[in-house]
Amino acid sequence: MKFYASVAASVISPKGNETVERIEKRVLDSNPVMEAFGNACTLRNNNSSRFGKYIQLQLDRFHHLSSASIQTFLLEKTRVAYQAPNERNFHIFYQITKGATAEERLEWNLPEGAHYRWLPNSERNLDEDCFEVTRDAMFHLGIDRSTQNNIFKVRYKAWSPQSCCCCLECLFSVGFLQK
Fold first, then answer.
1. Is Nucleus a UniProt keyword of this protein (predicted)?
2. Which of 16, 108, 141, 174 is most buried by a 10 A CB count?
């Protein structure tokens, strides 16, 4: 992507260069978000990708970068419900429990100091636990604070496999039940 961005920037107008830089920034800003929701600490690696990512760069008829799309797929859905000994769940869960402000905890129904059965090894502190990096990246991608708050809200409700969908609210409903 850096190659296409630099080649495209060298042959297009300044306004086109801004477009290329904006596209590149959005694709790069997607990484912290995808890593928070799709990476976990495993026995082999503190930031092991549990998802696949396919980035497609679109070029216009002059071979200039015009847009990009990212498609992801979760490789390890079982990690939400089970982690091997000494492993951790997806980073986003730890980021929220460690990085939420007192006001956010209250709004998101996330009690201070609570222990959650699907957050093993939460006493470990990793660089990947930085919630503010994820929130800033989400904001740069156009996900405003209000929408972020709705994503991170914990709602305790009845759950069944038939009603489960791949959204953080459902993951929290299932996985953040206290021990």
1. no
2. 108
